[in-house]
Design a protein that fits this description.
about 160 residues, mainly alpha, 6 helices
Length: about 160
């Protein structure tokens, strides 16, 4: 069996990317949300499939298995993530300036986007974060940055 240099390099890059800035995402169980989603909220984030591709449902109206573990508020997301950060990651975040938090976008931000359902239509979390900073768009990239900023503020 021969392993090519390209295979080794791509495997190495994948390991590096998976580990970059996401120490907090080690297999620690995610606590269940404590706040229920209000069906009368501005987003209409009811626990139904009224809008396929949103609110924890895929485009075929099948519920995502982990949708009930997604945080529903920006505060809850920041608190849950902060609770899972090791001390070295907390210190690295503390040592960063507010204006330099963008350095965490690709590694840590990707983990936040994936684990909180931002790519899968977590409308309640998006609405909550946009209430804190509505200067940007409702894109998962912007929402994960708001969560990182909230974590930074909690550490300062």
């Amino acid at each position: 069996m021969s392993i090519t240099r390209a295979a080794i390099c791509s495997g190495f890059v994948a390991v590096i990317m998976m580990g970059a800035n996401v120490v907090w995402a080690q297999s620690v169980p995610v606590p269940a949300p404590t706040a229920a989603v209000d069906p009368a909220s501005a987003s209409g984030a009811a626990a139904t499939c009224a809008t396929p591709g949103k609110n924890g449902y895929d485009k075929q109206c099948k519920r995502y298995a982990d949708a009930d573990t997604w945080p529903t508020t920006c505060e809850q997301a920041a608190t849950n993530i902060l609770a899972r950060l090791d001390e070295a990651s907390k210190q690295r975040t503390r040592d960063s300036t507010y204006d330099n938090l963008i350095q965490f976008h690709n590694g840590w931000g990707m983990g936040i986007r994936n684990s909180t359902g931002l790519w899968r239509g977590n409308v309640a979390l998006t609405d909550s974060c946009m209430a804190l900073d509505n200067d940007g768009d409702r894109h998962p990239d912007h929402i994960s940055m708001i969560i990182i900023q909230q974590i930074w503020k909690k550490l300062h």
